[in-house]
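Hey, I was hoping to borrow your eyes for a little while. I'm sending you its amino acid sequence along with the backbone structure tokens. Take your time with it, there's no hurry, and the full record follows here.
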Amino acid sequence: KKPYPERSRGLHRLRKRDDGEVRCVACMMCPTACPAHCITIVPEEAHGGGIEKRPRIFEIDELRCVVCGLCVEACPCDAIRIDTGVHAPPTLRRADAILDKEELLSRGEKSTATQGGVGAFWREKVKP
């Protein structure tokens, strides 16, 4: 089995706030930005009667996803990431490739992402 490249993204994950709740406020920016239309969000009112919403249903169809990262860029709350480094497992049924909110939250807070590039001094000329 060949190892994945260092910049391989992997599957999606949802992040939690410090209080343990999902960061997503169901603003619908990620499904709007998604060119593959693979993200489904159904919002609900947050507990406590506040003005903030949260997703009752948050699903990503990994078979439709083109791993473009536009959902990550569009999210104003930094709630969704594509940095698990885990490859999608093979499935026999299409429904098994649809990740729900609980599964996306279970991917944890650990990020495999690393800063790329040449560092803070990228404008300086490199002498051969």
